[in-house]
Every structure is written in C-alpha cells, then in structure tokens.
Please model this.
Amino acid sequence: MADILVVEDKDSLRAMLRATMESRGYAVEEAADAYEARRRLQGSRYLVVLTDLRLPAGSGFDVLQAAREADPQASVLVMTAYGTVDEAVRAMKEGAADFLTKPVDTDHLLLLLDRAVERRRLFTEYVLLKEEQQRRFGLPRVLGEDPAFKEALLAIQRAAATDATVLILGESGTGKELMARTLHQLSARSKGPFVAINCAAIPEALLENELFGHEKGAFTGAHARKAGRAELAHRGTLFLDEIGDLPLSLQAKILRLVQERQFERVGGVQTLTVDLRVVAATNRDLKEAVARKEFRDDLFFRLSVFPVTIPPLRRRRGDIPLLAEASLQRFASDVGRRGLELSEEARRALLDHSWPGNVRELQNCIERAVILCDGDRILPEHLRLGGAREDGPTLADVLDLSGTLAEVTRRAAEAAEGEALRRALREAGGDRGRAAEKLGIGASTLSRRMRALGIEGGPAGPR
Model:
C-alpha cells in the first residue's frame, strides 16, 4: 500500500513531487485529475494526500472530501498558486491539514509530510494504548476447561479464520464481549480497531448518530461532521452488543451495513462504504423476538451466519475455582497483596452458589472479598454470598432480570431449583436417595435434574 497519493495535472510537476517524496523513502501513487483521485481513494487508503486545488474533472475540494470520507485520519495537504491563498484557507476549514503555495518549496513539503506521518503514528499509538488499557483493566483472559465452553472457544477460533458475521449468544455476565475481542485478536483484522457499542445503553434518539455519525448542520448543535462507530471500525471489527434491544427503526440500516457494508451519515446523502466485520451479541432469544415481530427475520438470519453460544457459569461449575483464582491474582496484585489465597471453606461456598450473574458476578465477588479480607486467607464471610447486607438484598442482586419476561422466569426457576437441590443434598449429607425423598421426587429425576443444572453430588443412594 502506498503512503502518499499526489494529485496534480502537470506531468513535470507531478514527477518532481514524486521523486522528492520517494527520496525520503515514501511510497507514492499518482493521479492526474480529480476523477482518477476519487477512484483511487475508493479502493485504497493513504497516510497523506497531496493535491492541487485546480484540477481537471473536478477540483481539489472534491479530492479533499473523498479523502476525508475514505479515511478521517488521513492528512490532506493542498497546493495553490500564489495569490489564491484564500482557497487554501477555505480548504483548511473543510478539513485540510495544511497548504503549500506554488512553486513548491521541496524542503517545506518534506517537513509537512513528516509532520503528517508523525501525527498518524501518534494517533495509531494512542489507539494501541487504549486497546492495551482495555486488555489490562477489562475482563481477564479467556479461561475455562469445561467441554461446552471449550467448544464455544473452538468455534470462535474457526470463525476468526473467516470474515463471516458472528452472533454470540449467552446470558448477561458470561463474557460475550471478551469472546468478541478474542475473535478480533485472532483474525486478520487484529491490527485494525475493535469498536464496541451497546445497543441497549444508548437512547433510541441518539443511537443512529452514534452508529453512523452525522454531517455538519444535520441538527441543532451539529457544528461539524462527526464519524460514527461504523466509520471508526474501518478495517477492523464492529461489535454490536445487546443487538436484541436494537430499535426496529434502525434494524433495516443495520441489515444494509451487515450485507453491503454501506450507510449514510445522519443528514447526509452520500453513501459511505466501510471494510469491517460485524460481530453481534445478545442475551435475548432472537427467534422469539422475530415471532413477536420485535426483530426483523432477515436481520436475524443475516446475523446468525455463525452463531456461538457461551454456557452460563452454573453449567460449567468445574471452571469456578479456575476463574476465582485468576480473579484473585488479578485483584490482589492491583492492591499489592500477592499472598492472598482462598480458604477451603470459601472454595466450597463458591461451588455451592448458583451464580445468576455468571462470570461478572464471580469477579465482583472476588474483588469485594479482597477488599474486605484483613488476613492472608479469604473466608466465606468475605465473599458475602449468603449474608444479608445492611440495606437488604434486592432481586437484582441474585437474579439476572434482563431480557423478556419468559427468559427472566426461566432463569429464576432454574436458579431456585438449583438452590433447592443443593440444599437438599447438603442436608442429606450428599445421599441422593435421601435428598430425593426430602424433595418429593424420584432418585432418577433428581439425577437427571442435577445433570441438567450442572450440579455435582454424592452417591446415588439405595434404589
């Protein structure tokens, strides 16, 4: 890929400019008119665009607009004849980085080029530092030995080798965004940006603007053009979290983005094309939403080209100690207490809990325990899994209340059933036969429900 596109209709000047820039080590491409420049900008990206303002088949202003639309971070330098500096000033108001007057001073040109490239390097470093910050202070690395979880991770690895749209399914707190970031890092787009947007967290009136940006003057207060998340995700991954909460009014536009990679800014008429992969996630049953006419069936089918389901933590109980240890190391290190460890009683309490909030709830629990623990061993009372708080617990503390009423009811029933089974097993000393009697069900039914809910228990007992 070339570093610089030089747009100039005079062959001799264009050749001189190219030779000057190549002597500095830059890779250069040329265009002799505005039409050819726009065509090249549609197919390639450049660090810097150097253009004359007076051109055949258009003008330098057309080139400036095309360059800004193709890559908002590209620097555009304009050249103008002596006496028409006012045009250069106008170009800078429209987004040009700087201007040169003809005849071009090559030393000045190289200075401006070096500055523009340095600005781009600093911007790239800023993006990378943000990614590193998200990696270090966001969710921990992907951990899990459970077969169902490993199957989901293997599916993510397979999807990463393609550019297919991926739909990640799972309850709140299971780590859907972490899986999306893993997919991005494993893919050929890993050097590009990972741009996330939560469709449920932004008011409907603002969501389109956040997704697609706006043109200057599109509404009161729109004093300048703004790039949306889709535009910022060019050559990377756009993560649409909580896609099930996307308003119907925006679903057609998202469908077009997914299918054609095209959109218009709010208040704009020009169609923009981006190169990105769309990854979506939801904790809702989209099939039910389609049946209720709350979600477009064509968008559902387009998003679910490659669905991946992350199992809830109660279905992967063997991973609880592993995740708890990883979280403990992380949070203890943050506060300078590397010697902290979990007591056996705390481990049992973690295994007995139903974790309606999944991995996120487990992380919060361990972080709280690190803060509360004064010694070198975390005890059950530091976890605060069963004790009442001073202001009293609420349903939101123990139940995941997101999604539809049917989904909330199903999760609540499973959580209550799991707690009842575990309590009966504890009171029966692990004897499944006695536990089944206490619950008023058969031993085979108890065993079946334990398997379904991922509950480990003692001997089956007499039949």
User: Anything to note?
Assistant: The radius of gyration is 29 Å.
